[in-house]
Amino acid sequence: MDEPLDLLGRFIMKHLRDPGIHHVEHLLVAKWKAPALRDLQQELRSLSPEQRTLVRRAVVSSLDAAIHDFLFALQEASENGAVRILVDGNEPARESDGLHGELFSEDGWCARFSEYGEPTDD
Prior knowledge:
mainly alpha
């Protein structure tokens, strides 16, 4: 059985980070069929390959920054009792010295649980 911290990390990667990256990757190659996305996809397809790579990097960086900041705020709110997140009856925020620090490194949530792995600079 996974520890509560790992369950939370896997959940966040599977239901937040990975779908966000998947979405931008499909936008960049115009795979979505939704009429509301047609113009955006057309504009993105007009970019050079280098520009599309830059857009992807910016989106991944933005997602990771938002998750990091959310986890930092969650940790603080947990410490003052304002918010409690329970995973299998346990509070992962109490088991971590900083939830936001669980994301990165070769042992972090991105590396272990995200389909896209640890962020890179490419």
